# Entry
Amino acid sequence: MQDSSHGQPHISARRCRVCGRCIDACPRGVLELDEDRICIIHPELCDACLACEEACEQAAIEVSFAIVWARSVADPPDRD
Ligand code: SF4
Ligand code: SF4
# Structure
């Protein structure tokens, strides 16, 4: 059973045009404009929804994500 997933956005400074579309698209306030660059201010809030990736016309933001699987009740207990 899937327990949770979380993401980590990565931004290519070379490709980014600092248009802010990813900030507007993010429903969780992960990204913020800081002078002339996009900053990831709350990476812990990212749930890997990929809205920022889809909003970016420069393909400058990419979200890697991890899926954490809950232990099955059928798993044997750890032995010390
Ligand atoms: S949408 Fe893309 S190009 Fe625009 S600020 Fe975000 S990463 Fe940069
Ligand atoms: S994947 Fe979703 S929650 Fe994470 S930074 Fe992008 S828009 Fe925000």
Q: What stands out?
A: The two ends are 25 Å apart (CA to CA). The chain has two helices and four strands. The pocket of iron/sulfur cluster (ligand 1) is lined by residues 11, 16-22, 38, 55-56, 58, 60-61 (CB under 6 Å). The first strand starts at residue 2 and ends at 11.
